[in-house]
Design a protein that fits this description.
The complex is a heterodimer.
Chain A: H1 3-14, E1 15-19, H2 20-30, E2 35-38, H3 45-53, E3 59-62, H4 66-80, E4 84-88, H5 92-106, E5 111-117, H6 133-137, E6 143-146, H7 153-165, E7 171-177, H8 178-182, E8 184-188, H9 194-197, H10 206-218, E9 222-226, H11 228-232, H12 235-248, E10 252-254, E11 269-272, H13 279-287, E12 290-294, H14 300-303, E13 314-319, E14 333-336, H15 339-352, H16 359-373, H17 389-402, E15 407-411, H18 415-423, E16 432-433, H19 444-454, E17 459-465, H20 466-469, H21 475-481, E18 487-492, H22 497-506, H23 522-528, E19 532-536, H24 539-551, E20 556-561
Parallel strand pairs in A: 2-3, 2-4, 4-5, 5-7, 6-7, 9-10, 9-12, 10-11, 12-13, 13-14, 15-16, 15-17, 17-18, 18-20, 19-20
Antiparallel strand pairs in A: 1-8
Chain B: E1 25-34, H1 39-49, E2 53-63, E3 68-77, H2 79-91, E4 95-100, H3 101-104, E5 107-118, H4 122-133, E6 137-142, E7 145-152, H5 154-164, E8 169-181
Antiparallel strand pairs in B: 1-3, 1-4, 2-3, 5-7, 5-8, 6-7
Classes of the chains: A alpha/beta, B alpha+beta.
Chain lengths: ~600, ~190
Amino acid sequence: MTQANLKEQEAQTNEKQMTGAEMVIQALIEQGVEVIFGYPGGAVLPIYDEIFKNQDKIKHILVRQEGGALHAAEGYARSTGKVGCALVTSGPGATNAVTGLTDALLDSIPLVCITGQVPTFLIGTDAFQEADTTGITRPCTKHNYLVQTANEIPSKVHEAFHVARSGRPGPVVIDIPKNLQFEKGTYQKDKPKVEQTYTPVTEPNMHAIEEAVRIMAQAKRPVFYTGGGVINAGKKASELLRELVELTNFPITSTLMGLGAFPASDDKWLGMLGMHGTYEANWTMHDCDVMINIGARFDDRVTGRVDKFSPKSTKIHVDIDASSINKNIKVDIPIVADAEKALQAMIDVWKRKQYKTDQDALNIWWKQINEWRKKNSLAYKKDDKIIKPQYALEKLRDAMAADPRDSYVTTEVGQHQMWAAQFLPFNHPNRWMTSGGLGTMGYGLPAAIGAQIAHPDAFVVDVAGEASILMNIQEMSCAVQYRAPVKIFILNNQWMGMVRQWQELLHGERYSESYTESLPDFVKLAEAYGGIGLRAETPDDLDKVIAEMMKTDRVTIVDVCVDQKENCFPMIPSGKAHNEMILSPDAAAFDKTLV
Amino acid sequence: MNQTRKRNRGTKSVYAPGPEQENIESHTLAIIVRNEPGVLARVIGLFTGRGYNIDSLTVAEVDHEETTSRITIVCSGTPDVIIQIKAQLEQLIPVKRVRDLTIFGPHVERELALVKVAGTGDTRIEALRLADVFRAKPVDSTLESFIFEITGTTEKVDAFIDLMKPLGLVDVSRTGIAAISRGATTHDDLD
């Protein structure tokens, strides 16, 4: 289409008579939405009618339960950096979406979820499939709307995208009554009002930046502690982070959500920190004198015991969300800004003032860190007969490294998630999708589908547990339908592993309801859905099975039968400080190879 | 009285902080919001959802053309909690501005109450006499009752109600606190 044609079309759509449903689709197209995840129902049928007519412009992915649509949209959003989009019906459609919305809120994932609503004249009458969607989703969205007239649909949709992606990203719900979807209105491409009122601060305060950089230059035991905010700020932010770490030669650790912003292959990388973080990362955090937090929020799984958290450090905190500052941990230099802009400003100041680090002090600090590294906190006892879950992940890691394709990893929630975070190296942002804040079992499979739809040629694997995967197993059907060849790598120990681990360590080995009897045969289950099922029962099987998984272009479940008793170490017990972490009983005695 | 102070109200909210917390301060916040459906629920939901404490709340549209409402909230908590409350409120999309009048300096706080007192004979005369002292205005009267309208600080209203108790107090309706900064500055100038 030529420029002139485009202009003409734009002039036409600037003010045009349309139905509400047409306006929804028109606005989504203008927002650049290419894929929408959803499930039809009575209250969104007019919108689905328009989706039918606009199949060439917007691809709809039919999930098998609305919860799947939201997680798929999250996977799509997190792997692309775009706003994810979902469409569900009223009542149960909307309530099923609640978990995904909350998940996106806690992990700051930009989503727009359109929900159908009963006609305006039936609202409040307990009509069929009526639920107070805006009431229910108010605390689990960044913002939500109940559309009142057809005319305001376009501005609400544009506003929703603006809110979802600006500042600290998050989910936004637009609740659209069915009668408004039929009603004719005037489509106006006006600038939404909210863009004037909702303008989050993104530029850092330069005084604070200069002070922060001055303190960094004097640091004797510094550490970078980075989080999902760096990923959310875009690819450039990750590049700048690498540049700043290179300039300073400071050690760097990251939260679960921030993995990939800094390459795990770099020798300044300490591994993940927190409850199941490495020994060196947590001790570095505890003993540091300057902590530079970029885009992380001092979550309780990271800090451990708050009053003993990094007691000797001057804390610099860059966050786009002012309410994250001083929420859990008091900081000395708060900087409310976009991570990319703050990092750029720090680099500029560092270079302009020609700062040099205290090399002697840093050498001593690195020597200490390397002592901690020698603890080899991720070590585990290898076995010839039983597959250790860590070993399975090492094999998966090697297979992914040898594969020319770009690889994306999602996880469910539990032991396997922590092992994946510990044992899979992430060298690029947007390659790692996991439910961090909410800890939603069942996230991984639909998120993997979302990532695979966005990156059809990539290798996408959901590292799963056999309990988590059953929470959204129905999405197998969705993956098969769209030939989204996701691989589901189940570390099957027949237990809810993390629950079992806590029961063993903290509840006197009373394993209350954490063993799953009558699990399905995952190989047959995969086949029943039209995918491929593979099983590995011994370490010898594993190589063959992984090779086969890497080869196939079909949806695959790999059932890896792993050691049932393996625990996830190291671990900071709940309510303890970083320097009170416990190591695997095996760590001292076995396997000193670094992982 | 505009300094940070401890308020000692007879009634306790169900979210009253436990005895282990000290330095509980009371702050008066003026929250200017876009008056859209659900905005009040959003503000209140934030307080209940995060376990913050509301002592008093008033809300009304103050600018019809701009569809702006002003919510005055008196809330209590430790200094850290008060800072969190303000930061969280500012995150809400329809919230335009949050001003902590307690910190911004001199301001006027007023509350209006309608107080119904029933009685005859001496107690009735005494109620009327005290109302006069408090400059409370009788706005309804029968042979055995009065309704007084009283405006003033919370402390003044409290004192008046306490005095009316032995004189046949039967019902009270209070607006909660409305507050505004002193002097020529407006909300916008306070930046």
